[in-house]
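Methods: example folding runs. The two proteins below were folded one after another, and each record is reproduced exactly as written to the output file, sequence line first and structure-token line second.
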Amino acid sequence: MPRQVVAFTCGYFFGVILGLVYATLTVTIAAAITYKVASLFQQSYIASKYKKQLTKLHNFLSVDTFLKALVIRLLPVGSNFLTNILAGIANIPLRPYIAGSCLGFIPQMAIFSLAGSGVKLADSAHIGAAAILFLIATIIGYHLYKTRKSELN
């Protein structure tokens, strides 16, 4: 289930604050469970078939895992389910991955919990929130790029 639906539903039933807390905990726990189940398949046919790609993914995400997971979660694109499966199969470090994911979930959880609770958000508020999330992700991405570039030199 998309995390936005979880946040909207929690906001509707529990209000903004509790909805935000419950939704964030729910999607974080779901991410950890999906990761752990996927990690059981590290030796599977799929993992052996795509070993080269998974090794590249592991090497990339194993450095600054927290920040990279945060950036991935701040961007409102992609599939959480697929991201968690790939992270589990690629054996990305669990704790920083889940911590970065949890923190990265919060902005969208807040927006959809507000919407679910009945608080009317103007279109400009949605656009502003999206712009801020994009700016934060860009800044962190640039930092990671510069750090990684200096490590390679």
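Second run, written to the same file directly after the first:
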Amino acid sequence: MKVNTVKRHFRESFKSLGRNSWMTLASVSAVTVTLLLVGVFALIMMNLNKVASDLENDVEIKVLIDETADEAAEKELLAKIKKLPEVEDITYSTREEELSDLVKDFGDDFKLFEQSNPLRNVVYVKASEPQQTASLAKTIDKYDFTYDVMYGEGKVEKLFKALNIGRNVGLVLILGLLFTAIFLISNTIRITIIARRDEIEIMKLVGASNSFVRIPFLLEGMWLGILGSIIPIAVVITLYYNIYKNVAPRLKGEFIQLLNFSPLVYQVSALLLLIGVLIGVWGSFMSVRKFLKI
């Protein structure tokens, strides 16, 4: 394609935006509203997914070692647990360390137990895949010198089930919102192009090729997507900046944390821009195609 032809296509796409200002405004408005919903919902779902992942990763198995186990037996038990393929990490804690943590968490009243410590040596086990926690706990429970194996039986399974349902529901909602965005934006662009069908038919009658007719409309759809994504991107950045600035300090040291401002907002912004451009180009392509068959 010649350079002059390319310049002509870009020039015509810009002119079309100005000549059809009301339809351009309608298309850009449709893109803006739908992408704004997508952007806000994406921020919410990505943070909820982080909370879900944090909850899953916080699940661990607490193995109480039998008091009859000597140092050699404990080392053998730790080695057997560490060799399990499902194990990501293990941490050994003595009964004295357990009591110290208890005093730190619940107060000096528990210092009374320092003279006669009723606690046991413990091994904390983290599964490489959180969903493997229950099966891993049952395997460890069969080993010698394990007094008890605790992982929140019953509650953990319900937690994982609830998190999976939440993720699936979120995925369905996002896909539904994206399909709604595609439908609304492409239909608005289609109406814009239908209003200019005479222009397309005339170009075809004077011998213009399909690509010569199509490219300016594709570029126009791309500009509509870019223009329509500007406000949603600005709103997403401003909204999340203020939320992160005010909420993140209050959650410092807490279990639940927000995703960092960067790179989250840049990822969401790039996603919105990409969606806007793709939908704009796709809507223009599908709309122009029916008028090229004359």
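Comment on the second run: The chain has two domains: 3-55+158-289, 60-150.
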